Amino acid sequence: MMKKNLITFLSVVFLFCFFICVQDIGAEDTTEKIQKSEASDPSSKITDNIKAKDNKKVAGDVVTEIDKYVIGPEDVLDIFVWKEESLTKTVPVRIDGKISLPLLDDIQAAGLTPLQLKDELTKKLTGFVDNPTVTVTVKEANSYRVFISGEVRQPGIVRIRSEVTLVKLIIMVGGFTEWANKRKILVLTKENGKEKRITANYNKIIDGDIPDIIIKPGDTVIIP
Length: 224
Hints:
It is a single chain. It contains 5 helices and 12 strands. By secondary structure, it is α+β, with helices and mostly antiparallel strands. Among the domains are: 71-140, wza like domain (wza like fold, 2-Layer Sandwich); 145-223, Roll (Outer membrane lipoprotein wza fold like).
């Protein structure tokens, strides 16, 4: 009787172990099939490639913007120096185009791109900090603006991302009023650090008789 019970018990244990082994093998086969399917599925590879290209494009666009933007007076900059809290500051660009930082005093910032200013700060900090790592970010781009007054529908300060033409600027402010003298528009600009006065005839520009005028950041346009 005991032998019979022992044989029955051993049979049950054997069947249980066999059942567990079969389940494990089936799970491994399923996992392997899924992995092979993913590896051989061209659509997943295409999706991954598209994502990688999109990431590169976004990074490229950011770098391009940094390369093109020229710092000007009244901009606000974030200066970050790795592991140097006393040198990490948010600083305004003064009217004279300079910023002030501890150890370095006054540094010319206007006229440089953020990357150029980063290189300049890195060179100057080398004498005070071992292998300085500097990041320059434009927090507020206040210098990219144009002033327009007189007979337009929305006179005041116009913020721009880059140079615009006179015709586009007039569109941005809603056009002329009915009393505007379109033939004697005055543009105040700077050339080589000196103020320059330009008189423009809007009608001739529209007719194609003369080229449109480039309005640069900081210029003032007066519509009589």
